[in-house]
Design brief:
This protein is of the alpha+beta class. The chain has 31 helices and 39 strands. The termini are far apart.
Length: 1082
């Protein structure tokens, strides 16, 4: 069996290893504290520093100076310590004597001395210190500088290390440290059980060996770890190694081993003894610290510019790579000695140093613009630099960044040049000065500025600058140059190689050009008028800056060039315009301040209708009285005196011959040298026709808007009319059929009658919607308007009530109109109901008719009347009237002046729709508290004889025996009509489609007297269906029915004159009467 070493031998390396382990942990702690390179910069001395004068004749002096660590160590403030002497802090008399009395004498023999003493804190606690005392001369007086280090922890550590071997073994076990021994002579290994567990192995399952140790290491660390240990063992030196193990549970751990060599009597290393501890948490902390440090460094390096940190002396304590390489231009190790102010341009150093001082001393946040030398100069760039103070351990530092603003400053310089360079006050032409400036600003050798021909193929130069000299202007072609295709574009830039790209440009070849810039100059309307071209013999240094500068220059140059072109054009055309004075199509005049004309051209005389003979008379008159409205004259004069000019003042004028015209007056005051107004220069334009056109346009726009509104509502009404009418037809028909039963209860009869009444009202509502939308299906007839009104009088009197007097004034001549009589009823009802609602208590409604004739010479009253004969229907009330601001809206759908819930806004819109449908117009007049008057004009029919009225028959008793072919695609309507007709005695052949109807009509067994068909049918147009059936049965009579609007029905050709038609929904009475009439041939 291998003999184990003695306990003393085992513990000897353990003691040493443990001590090293503690120091390792302390070193690791220091590494964590000082890991961040920027934190190291701000750390101050951790030892307490106490400075005091040397005692004389038993007298002790208080401390002269202490640092923050001294305050932290003792618990006293700086002010308190400066009132104390060394004896106040030492625990016993021996220490006091050693430090205060004996030690100064010893300083004559030694420069410094190291001793240990027990010191007292402010709270009374005691701690062990190691004091390094040095004699120095401060201010001519001998002083002691005491550097005090708290060694309490170290003393405790030493005591722990002095414990017995058994206790040390317990500590090692508690710390989970493994101990090993390697006999190099026989290659025998001895491991403690804890070491097996650290390797992730069971002690009972493995024997300690070099191979087992090697296999426990993760493959990535195995070779390097083995190589380091082997090299150390060959040299016989102590080693420290770190590696990772990955036990069977998969958890990776870091281990650290320290091995100490032992020698035999011959002095040769024959064995190693060491310790292994788990340093996983320590390694993770180190990696986290490294990662955090890398992250912080990456942030600083990502700053778009410079980053710097200055200490209180203005030297670099931190920087990024840009600051180091581009600005300072020194290696890393020389940066701490570099003074930041030396990198600033000499002309900017005073201001910059003031900002640095304000930051460090006062804590101000400063921003300054300045020139920064590149690697010591003379090259520089402009930077916007910031500074903010931070304090570490009582020491101030300036942290700041710098942003390169060189391009911005150069652009500002261009803006300054353009602002102070005025073409109006020039010592040299603007474009010459600009060419010279651009050559210097952008480092170009050739600059030319010119005006393009109208076709853009050639350019006439205005300024040429070549190699520092002005050259004569010339005309040059654009073909084969880089500028040939940039017209209409803003800018063209070639950074380098332009000579090779355009070998046919002789100027580029002559200059051996490398770079090229061209920008187009535009007029205010966007057309190209000129160009600036720059050529350089070197590559372009900063294309982005060049583009920005040229964009600025192009804006100003475009304005200057356009002004120059305009001035030349004005000079060329001045003579021509002078000759055109008398031929301009406006009236030009000059008058004194009293309104008397001094001079005027012929057009002015023509506009004012003044002949040459009357010229002098008109000139002597005050033309201010020519305004039709004197307020216009006052307003014109007020504006003229206030602002010195008046543009396009429009007003009605009384011309010299007394006629009225709309004139536009533009005038300007002409002042004398003293600033007083001498006379007025002005012009007249006759805008009478334009005003008339504007009034006509306004009227037409109003009519168009109304028409569009009616069309919109018509689409809405027409969209629901068909389906709604079909549903009403089913409801109305079935209710009426039910009423024919003789055994009905009275209550049931009343309920059915209510259904009939509701259906009729709904039908009327649909008709009203269609009426004001002009979609109503009508059956116009030539009727006497007086007769229609008289038939309505009794109903109207009941409608408006007994308190309102109804007066009827019929016209003398026969007022014949072609209109559906029901529409006259609708007009009268709506107007009389509105009149009734407008009258409070007692009043009068007057209905009047007359025949009138309008001609072309009648005054325009704002309506859309046309020349011709008309029949007038007038309704006048004595109600409260309508406010003027509502007049333009009263015929709009859903507009009402009544209270909420008392008006639908459909009444007058319905009247308007009916009148327009019948090609008439309405004149409306109303004043508040005086009533309203509606005059409706309908075209008068030339036929003075009304058509004979239908014979009155009792529709309820009408019966028949004829056969009727009924065609309807709606099953409910088909069923209802069949029931009604069969109840009246007719034989009914029902068909749901046109095809089925043709089949029934083709059968010879059936004798068919009447075709009753819906207008809108699937499969076939109803007109084609009727033609087909008439070809089979020529004597067939036809009656059409539909619930669609008039325009939909008209599209199917069934509203022509003489065509029999009945509108859905219809009553049993209406259908019976219509069928009997058609069969009878009426």
């Amino acid at each position: 069996m291998t003999k184990l070493p003695s306990l003393h031998e085992q513990l000897q390396p353990v003691n040493k290893t443990a001590t090293n382990n503690v120091r390792l942990q302390q070193d690791e702690h220091a590494h964590q504290e000082n890991g961040n390179q920027y934190k190291i910069i701000f750390d101050t001395i951790r030892d307490g520093i106490f400075v005091h004068k040397i005692s004389e004749n038993g007298q002790t002096y208080p401390f002269e100076l202490v640092n923050p660590a001294a305050c932290s160590m003792t618990g006293y403030t700086e002010a308190e310590l400066l009132q104390m002497n060394p004896g106040d802090l030492l625990e016993n008399e021996d220490s006091k004597t050693l430090c205060i009395e004996e030690y100064p004498d010893d300083l004559h023999k030694h420069n410094s001395r190291l001793l240990e003493a027990v010191m007292l804190r402010k709270n009374g606690s005691r701690f062990f210190t190691e004091i390094s005392v040095t004699k120095v001369i401060l201010g001519g007086a001998p002083c002691l500088v005491c550097s005090v280090q708290d060694i309490t922890l170290r003393k405790a550590t030493n005591r722990n290390l002095a414990e017995s071997n058994s206790r040390l073994q317990l500590i090692m076990d508690a710390a989970h440290a493994g101990i090993w021994e390697w006999n190099m002579q026989n290659n025998v290994n001895i491991w403690t059980d804890e070491l097996f567990r650290l390797y992730g192995l069971e002690p009972d399952c493995y024997e300690a060996s070099y191979d087992v140790w090697r296999q426990s290491i993760v493959p990535e660390d195995r070779d390097e770890t083995e190589r380091n240990i082997v090299e150390a063992s060959k040299k016989g030196v102590e080693f420290t190694a770190e590696w990772r193990v990955r036990p069977t549970d998969g958890t990776e751990r870091w281990l650290m081993s320290k091995g100490t060599p032992f020698r035999n009597t011959e002095g040769k290393v024959n064995r190693y003894v060491g310790i292994v501890i788990d340093v996983t948490q320590l390694k993770l902390a180190q990696m986290a610290e490294i990662k955090e440090q890398s992250f912080r460094k990456a942030i600083i390096e990502s700053i778009p510019g410079t980053f710097y940190m200055l200490d209180a002396k203005g030297r670099y304590a931190g920087w990024n790579a840009y600051q180091r390489d581009e600005i300072i231009g020194k290696p890393e190790h020389e940066m701490p000695e570099a003074a930041a102010i030396e990198s600033i341009h000499p002309e900017d150093r005073t201001l910059t140093q003031e900002k640095i001082t304000n930051v460090l001393k006062n804590g101000s946040v400063e921003i300054v613009e300045g020139r920064v030398l590149l690697r010591g100069g003379p090259a520089f760039r402009w930077f916007l630099m910031t500074g903010q103070r931070i304090v570490f351990d009582g020491n101030p530092f300036l942290v700041g960044t710098g942003i390169d603003i060189t391009d911005r400053k150069r652009i500002e310089a261009v803006q300054t040049f353009l602002a102070r360079t005025s073409s109006a006050a020039k010592t040299e032409p603007f474009f010459t000065a600009l060419a010279e400036y651009l050559a210097a600003c952008l480092g170009m050798d050739f600059v030319c500025i010119g005006q393009l021909d109208s076709d853009g193929l050639r350019m006439k130069t205005l300024a040429i600058w070549l190699d520092g000299h002005v050259k004569d202007n010339l005309s040059c072609a654009m073909k084969d140059t880089p500028s040939e295709n940039i017209q209409g574009k803003e800018i063209c830039i070639h950074n380098a190689g332009v000579c090779d790209l355009f070998p046919r440009d002789p100027q580029l070849q002559e200059l051996q050009a490398e770079s090229y810039i061209a920008t187009t100059l535009f007029a205010h309307n966007g057309s190209p008028i000129g160009m600036i071209r720059l050529i350089g013999r070197r590559p372009l240094e900063n294309p982005h800056l060049a583009r920005s500068i040229m964009n600025l220059v192009a804006m100003r140059s475009s304005g200057e060039l356009e002004r120059l072109i305009t001035e030349n054009s004005l000079l060329q055309s001045e003579k021509k315009y002078r000759n055109l004075f008398e031929s301009v199509p406006i009236g030009l005049y000059q008058s004194d301040m009293e309104g008397n004309i001094i001079t005027a051209n012929q057009n002015c005389l023509d506009i004012t209708r003044c002949s040459k003979e009357d010229r002098e008379v008109w000139f002597s008159q005050d033309t201010r009285a020519s305004y039709v409205d004197s307020k216009d004259s006052e307003r014109f004069r007020s504006l003229l005196l206030k602002q010195g000019y008046v543009n396009g003042f429009e007003a009605r004028f009384r011309r010299y011959d007394g006629t009225i015209a709309w004139l536009s007056n533009t005038a300007k005051l002409i002042y004398n040298e003293k600033g007083g107004a001498d006379f007025i220069n002005g012009s007249f334009i006759d805008i009478t026709e334009r005003k008339q056109a504007e009034e006509e346009k306004t009227k037409l726009e109003t009519q168009l808007q109304q028409s569009q509104k009616m069309e919109l509502v018509g689409r809405l009404a027409g969209g629901i009319a068909h389906d709604f009418n079909n549903m009403l037809g089913v409801i109305l028909g079935n209710a009426e059929l039910a009423l024919t039963c003789e055994t009905l209860d009275k209550t049931v009869i009343n309920n059915l009658q209510e259904i009939v009444n509701a259906a009729n009202r709904s039908s009327n509502l649909t008709g009203q919607l269609l009426a004001f939308a002009r979609k109503q299906t009508v059956n116009p007839k030539i009727v006497d308007l007086n007769m229609l009104v008289e038939e309505m009088l009794n109903m109207l009197r009941r409608l408006i009530g007994e308190d309102i007097n109804l007066i009827w004034i019929p016209g003398n001549s026969q007022p014949m109109v072609n209109i559906d009589p029901s529409q006259i009823d609708q007009i009268l009802v709506n107007l009389c109901v509105n009149a009734r609602d407008a009258i409070t208590d007692i009043g009068t409604v007057t209905i009047e008719t007359a025949t009138v004739c309008f001609t072309d010479t009648d005054d325009d009253d704002g309506t859309d009347k046309r020349p011709g004969d008309y029949v007038m229907l007038s309704v006048t009330d004595t109600g409260h009237g309508i406010e003027k601001q509502h007049h333009s809206h009263i015929f709009e759908p859903f507009f009402t002046t009544k209270e909420t819930g008392k008006g639908t806004g459909l009444g007058l819109a319905t009247v308007y729709g009916i009148v327009k449908q019948n090609e008439g117009f309405i004149v409306f007049e109303s004043e508040p508290q005086k009533g309203s008057n509606f005059r409706i004009y309908l075209p008068r029919d030339k036929n003075r004889t009304p058509l004979p009225a239908d014979e009155k028959t009792d529709a309820l008793n009408i019966t028949g025996k004829e056969t009727i072919l009924l065609v309807e695609d709606e099953p409910e309507i088909l069923k209802l009509c069949r029931m009604i007709l069969e109840k009246k005695g007719y034989s009914v052949l029902a068909a749901a489609t046109p095809g089925e109807a043709i089949r029934i009509a083709s059968e010879p067994d059936h004798k068919i007297h009447l075709l009753l068909t819906d207008v809108i049918m699937p499969e076939m147009n109803v007109r084609d269906l009727s033609d087909k059936l008439l070809s089979i049965r020529p004597d067939l009579k036809i009656l059409f029915m539909s619930g669609y609007t008039a325009d939909n029905i008209a599209n199917h050709g069934v509203l022509d004159t003489g065509v029999n038609f009945i509108q859905k929904p219809f009553t049993i009475k209406a259908l019976s009467k219509k069928v009997a009439a058609v069969l009878a041939g009426s």
